[in-house]
């Protein structure tokens, strides 16, 4: 296998059908088809609708990625696919497609972990991962802090949300402010015109008694309820809701807790690199606050560009390429899709 393997990655764990192609750490193609608009009127991703959309999009997206990269399936060294965690039906479409292509073209297949792929994608922008690193993954489905000693071997979970994911909180708050789905980008934009100190919303799991048991865990459900109560009280009193101030204050509460806990994890483990990934990593306030606070304690922050932060095929290809280059054995061709795939497993082993 070459040092700079040509790897194709397929992602279908949620509402994005992604096919990416990388050579080593170089991104050659990142084709994406999203079903996000089909979910908008429901205010969240509907699994059956997502699966159907993947089925329709997978073959054209695959073709587009190969065309964009200027390669054929025969040129590819290995195929990587998200095996989990994610929506079972959605994962199945990607895994079945990857198996079909692997079988037809006689290529090795790697069933990989979606969360580890969110970490690996940063190599496409910033080069090899400095290890150890702390990774903070914040999206619609997950909010985790991980210690990354060796991405080929597994990662150590340090903490996670005990209720809503960070992106889910953005989506729910946007819904109660009547802003549509997905909520993150619109709250981010609206918050630019607001005052982040206008309303003192709660910072979940940061009180001393909570820190004892949940130092690196998150909770956003109380925050979401606090925003709902605050808005209701305003509406009852007949006063207009200052939407930009609510958005800015809510966003600040989320970003304050995320950055404080991530940097605490870096300090605790003597780590100098913080990688942030997942859809919420696209948030402008989170990026700024992380940079500011990290600079003060000598930690370097690595955040991929927004298109690579949200779900895509390139991240899967990046992790596949990392595994191939490290000489890790492929997965068996009968690998299962595992909606609850554990973080300690980077790929499905034989
Ligand atoms: O990683 P991702 O594309 O899919 C999941 O695996 O969930 O993340 C989507 C989530 C959504 O909840 C969306 O509202 C949030 O990421 N998001 C943002 C921003 N852009 C996307 N949240 C805050 N600020 C943003 N700019
Ligand atoms: Zn994701």
UniProtKB/TrEMBL annotation:
Gene: tsaD
Coiled-coil zones: none
Gene3D superfamilies noted in UniProt: 3.30.420.40
Cofactor binding description: Binds 1 Fe(2+) ion per subunit.
GO MF assignments: iron ion binding; tRNA N(6)-L-threonylcarbamoyladenine synthase activity
The protein's required cofactors: Fe(2+)
Enzyme nomenclature, EC number: 2.3.1.234
Keyword Cell membrane found: no
UniProt name for this protein: tRNA N6-adenosine threonylcarbamoyltransferase
Function: Required for the formation of a threonylcarbamoyl group on adenosine at position 37 (t(6)A37) in tRNAs that read codons beginning with adenine. Is involved in the transfer of the threonylcarbamoyl moiety of threonylcarbamoyl-AMP (TC-AMP) to the N6 group of A37, together with TsaE and TsaB. TsaD likely plays a direct catalytic role in this reaction.
Top-level enzyme category: transferase
Domain Gcp-like: 27-317
Binding site residues for Fe cation: 114, 118, 311
UniProt main location, coarse: cytoplasm
PANTHER family: TRNA N6-ADENOSINE THREONYLCARBAMOYLTRANSFERASE (PTHR11735), TRNA N6-ADENOSINE THREONYLCARBAMOYLTRANSFERASE, MITOCHONDRIAL (PTHR11735:SF6)
Superkingdom of origin: Bacteria
Chain positions recorded as substrate binding sites: 137-141, 171, 184, 188, 283
GO cellular component, one term: cytoplasm
Keywords: Acyltransferase, Cytoplasm, Iron, Metal-binding, Transferase, tRNA processing
Catalytic activity: L-threonylcarbamoyladenylate + adenosine(37) in tRNA = N(6)-L-threonylcarbamoyladenosine(37) in tRNA + AMP + H(+)
């Amino acid at each position: 296998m070459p040092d700079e393997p040509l790897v194709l990655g397929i992602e279908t764990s949620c509402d994005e059908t992604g096919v990416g192609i990388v050579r080593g750490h170089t991104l050659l193609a990142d084709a994406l088809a999203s079903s996000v608009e089909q979910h908008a009127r429901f205010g969240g991703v509907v699994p059956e609708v997502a699966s159907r959309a993947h089925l329709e999009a997978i073959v054209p997206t695959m073709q587009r990625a190969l065309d964009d990269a200027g390669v054929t399936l025969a040129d590819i060294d290995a195929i990587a696919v998200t095996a989990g965690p994610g929506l079972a039906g959605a994962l199945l479409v990607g895994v079945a497609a990857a198996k079909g292509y692997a079988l037809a073209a006689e290529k090795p297949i790697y069933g990989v972990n979606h969360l580890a792929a969110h970490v690996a994608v940063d190599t496409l922008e910033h080069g090899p991962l400095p290890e150890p690193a702390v990774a903070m993954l914040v999206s619609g489905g997950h909010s985790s802090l991980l210690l990354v000693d060796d991405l080929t071997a597994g990662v150590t979970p340090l903490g996670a949300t005990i209720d809503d994911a960070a992106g889910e909180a953005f989506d729910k708050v946007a819904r109660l402010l009547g802003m549509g789905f997905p909520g993150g980008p619109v709250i981010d934009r609206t918050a630019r015109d607001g005052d982040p100190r206008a309303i003192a919303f709660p910072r979940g799991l940061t009180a001393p008694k909570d820190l004892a048991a949940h130092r690196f865990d998150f909770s956003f459900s109380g925050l979401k309820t606090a925003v709902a109560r605050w808005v209701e009280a305003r509406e009852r009193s007949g006063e207009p809701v200052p939407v930009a101030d609510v958005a800015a204050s809510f966003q600040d509460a989320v970003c304050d807790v995320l950055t404080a806990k991530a940097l605490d994890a870096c300090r605790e483990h003597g780590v100098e690199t913080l990688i942030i990934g997942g859809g919420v990593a696209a948030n402008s306030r989170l990026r700024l606050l992380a940079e500011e606070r990290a600079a003060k304690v000598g930690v370097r922050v690595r955040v991929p560009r927004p298109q690579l932060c949200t779900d895509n095929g390139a991240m899967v290809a990046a992790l596949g390429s990392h595994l191939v280059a490290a000489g890790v054995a492929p997965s068996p061709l009968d690998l299962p899709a595992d909606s609850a795939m554990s973080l300690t497993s980077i790929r499905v082993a034989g």
